[in-house]
Amino acid sequence: MKHYIGAGNPMHAQFEAKAGYQAEHFSWAFEAGIGTITLNRPERKNPLTFDSYGELRDLFRALNFASDVKAIVVTGAGGNFCSGGDVHEIIGPLTQMRMPELLEFTRMTGDLVKAMRHCPQPIVGAIDGVCAGAGAMIALACDLRYGTPATNTAFLFTRVGLAGADMGACALLPRVIGQGRASELLFTGRAMTAPEGHAWGFFNALHESDALLPAATAMARKLAEGPSFAHGMTKTMLSQEWAMTIDQAIEAEAQAQAICMQTEDFKRAFEAFAGKRKPVFGGD
């Protein structure tokens, strides 16, 4: 769940602000509580490298301790989201590696998805054009996804001789679009069209390309202005309750909600309602 550590708390120094973070292998921008990650190799449709995988993983891990960041937008430059692992910089070298090295790589890619799912901030994907392979998994790991009519999403691992089981695909995709649809995409590697993705629940909405990032940012801003501690709790419960029985989930939510009822944001919401004004949340 989202941490709130006030300036007077002795642990405050452990919670690093990310407003001034300088990314090396993608673009990072920060404004009004929203961090925007842009995959920015547009000449190659924004493929990933070993370095960008690692930096993305480390950034999402660090966001657990970034109390200034309330929501995240992930997008790609140049009309495409991400074409997956770079054929020359990743796929080629992988064919020369031994099993222990390959396992280190596949664990690293999976750790990126884990970091995205474990960071408390809601993540909004703005997904245009090509969204393939590991790029499709990054999109899938987002909490909300917006696409365009031109978005084509392909979990194409089987087309390069690999299993469809990659980076958590066999766990996450069926939960989003259903077992049968996920099975088809993971067995065949075919692209899911934007209308299919919208109809199946992969995309929350479709927008024209020029309206995509503004729409995703507007949603991120709405989330950032909300009760961020409670949003973190919601994200935590959405993940944890996959492995619970109904009785366990109801009890877990009872405890989670009781914790949220102790926050100042809960009091602020009541006072704003009583005063007939919009609440201003502080995340504590």
Plain-language structure description:
This protein has 284 residues and is of the alpha/beta class. Helix content is 45%, strand content 13%. The protein is built from eleven helices and nine strands. The chain has helices spanning 50-62, 87-94, 99-118, 134-141, 169-177, 179-188, 194-199, 209-224, 228-240, 246-260, 264-274; strands at residues 27-31, 34-39, 71-76, 123-127, 130-132, 144-147, 152-154, 191-193, 205-206. Strands 1-2-3-4-6-9 form a six-stranded mixed β-sheet, sandwiched between helices. Strands 5-7-8 form a three-stranded mixed β-sheet. Strand 1 and strand 2 (34-39) form a beta hairpin. It starts with 26 loop residues before the first strand and ends in a 10-residue tail after the last helix. The model has no long low-confidence stretch (mean pLDDT 93). This is Enoyl-CoA hydratase family protein. Belongs to the enoyl-CoA hydratase/isomerase family. InterPro entries: ClpP/crotonase-like_dom_sf, Enoyl-CoA_hyd/isom_CS, Enoyl-CoA_hydra/iso, Enoyl-CoA_hydra_C.
Q: Got a strand count?
A: 9
Percentage of β-strand residues: 5-15%
| Mean of all residue-level pLDDT scores | 93
- The strands making up the biggest β-sheet line up spatially as 1-2-3-4-6-9
Helix fraction bin: 40-55%
Please give the radius of gyration in angstroms.
19 Å
Distance between the termini: 11 Å
Spans where pLDDT lies below 50 across 5 or more residues: none
User: Could you say which overall geometry the principal axes of the C-alpha atoms support?
Assistant: globular
Biggest sheet overview: 6 strands, mixed
Topology as H/E string?
A: EEHEHHEEHEEHHEHEHHHH
Number of helices: 11
Structural category is alpha/beta
